[in-house]
Amino acid sequence: MLLLAAAAAAAGGILSLINTSGITDVSALRTVSKPTEVTVSGSLEAVKITDRHVVLTLTGGGFKITAVADRRTLEALYGPVTPKNFEATVVVKGLYIPTNQTLVVESILRGCHSAYQQTPADTK
Amino acid sequence: MRFRDLAVGLLAVIYTSLLSFLALRGPFPALVPLGSPTAYRSLYIHVPQSIAALLLAAAAAAFAVLYLLKPTERRFYVMDRAAVLAAVFSWLSFFTGTAWAVESWGSAWSGDPRQMAVGVMAVLYTAYIILKRSVEDPDRLGRLAASYLIIAVASIPVTLVAPILFPALHPATGAALPQLAPAIRMWYSTALILLLAFSALLVAGGRIPKPFALAALAAAAAVGGYLLWENAQPLYRVFNATVSNGVIYVNTDRGELSIPLDKAPVDPLVVNGTVALVGHLLTERGEAAVHWSVGLNLIATGVAVMLISLLWGKRHE
User: Fold this and answer.
1) Do B33 and A87 lie within an 8 Å CB cutoff?
2) pTM of this prediction?
């Protein structure tokens, strides 16, 4: 019984570690009070593409942030950026500035979920 | 040479040769959310190794319970070997997944919950090896090691449920693999079965004879090295491609390439009306290059086989 309790405590410890330092929901930024490096996941509400920037409006749990990415940097990584590039849920990594609820994007991350249902291909 | 060692050695060579073949010619998803679709050839390397790590950790915990109920030398032996292999495969899983994530997620480290859980698991099972070496009293060692492994097994359910409980880049447990195209699933299942058979024989006491380990390492290093060399030359990242009058016009980060249709770098070229070249890395001649993470993961696997051979070499005979 003691061992099982210790195993449960270990599981709780690992989950707590993941909860505090893993990918967080946009709503978790509500409590951030100083500029912090974060990786957040949020529902995409709007995409605006200007000459220099790509501006994403992300929401979660009633909280809204603006994620700003350099368009040239994104294009160098992912090719031409259009609103169609983004899925309903977006994960971004960067510096969050709480005073204006803005996240300066370093990279936009993608899950690999949708790849598994694809037609197989091969190199020649 | 014992029959079991011969079987383990042969399985090690067949497994790494199969992975080498799949790294060069394995089917991959035609259209992917990010990066080069060829990076998905790491599916054959990373996913079976992750499953093996979890099963080995579970086996170590099961034998730890049996040992605590009735301590025998055989039960300790199996528990110990499963735990050591769980450490090797969880590090391998962490490393191969991180290399793959660079291309397919956009970042090596993103705080993905399963990636973190596997990292913690690798540390926990490495700590087991340190713990085992630090206890000198053999009577205490057995009970202490078994108790530790029962606690460490907590990392398995956490690894499995983490992508469901937290925002994640990993697909949820069991959600992705049933969706795989039959051609991919067939090769994936073959790699998984070979690795599980190899692991089971090792846990049961098999050793990889050095010539077989060297052959496995050579196969992995040769193909992995070739793929890394291929990535050392200037490569063109495809942004867009169109087909017109028997020519493929490819828009890349280094300018435009024109490739005759009969020399299309991938097969099939068009999937659901889309030219399936976006994200690919092409050489100057318009040939598809396999992403470096696949080569690196292949070499890491060869090194791990060699490490296991050295770990359980002659000194235990």
Assistant:
1) yes
2) 0.91
